[in-house]
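Is this the right way to post structure tokens for a design question? Let me know if I should format differently. Anyway, here goes:
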């Protein structure tokens, strides 16, 4: 059974605020350029609507897409810059630790060949404990282990 963990609300709000501020600056620059160059209002309005549509589409895609996906074969990490290995099979995972990296709590999956995947806990919505338990059960199944109790 696959599990997905999405972006946290505060991070998503911060990203949306950043893009809206950028959109506001772009609209202001377009309005000034339209006034200086004498562009028709229809062209200016069309460009503004296109920019708004791009931001809304990006927000909806980001909101709905999973940052971490755990399935029967392995894991997949998206939208995390500097995560390292973005996906691997469960057989490749040597161990998982929750540790502090650059003053931030992260989940680190260490692979048998020495590579790692680092996922900051603050980017994920939901409980870190739930993610760790889910990850442990997927990892146990991937290695063929069964719980006794």
């Amino acid at each position: 059974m696959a599990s997905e963990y999405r972006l946290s609300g505060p991070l998503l709000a911060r990203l949306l605020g950043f893009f809206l501020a950028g959109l506001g600056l772009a609209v202001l620059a377009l309005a000034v350029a339209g006034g200086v160059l004498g562009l028709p209002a229809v062209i200016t309005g069309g460009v503004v609507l296109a920019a708004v549509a791009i931001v809304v589409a990006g927000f909806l895609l980001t909101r709905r897409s999973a940052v971490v996906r755990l399935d029967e074969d392995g894991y997949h990490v998206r939208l995390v810059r500097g995560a390292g290995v973005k996906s691997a099979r469960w057989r490749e995972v040597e161990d998982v630790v929750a540790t502090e990296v650059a003053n931030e709590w992260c989940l680190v999956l260490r692979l048998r060949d020495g590579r790692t995947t680092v996922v900051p806990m603050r980017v994920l919505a939901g409980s870190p404990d739930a993610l760790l338990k889910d990850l442990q059960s997927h990892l146990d199944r991937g290695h063929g282990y069964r719980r006794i109790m």
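Format looks fine. Someone answered above. Worth noting: The radius of gyration is 21 Å. DSSP finds three helices and seven strands in the chain.
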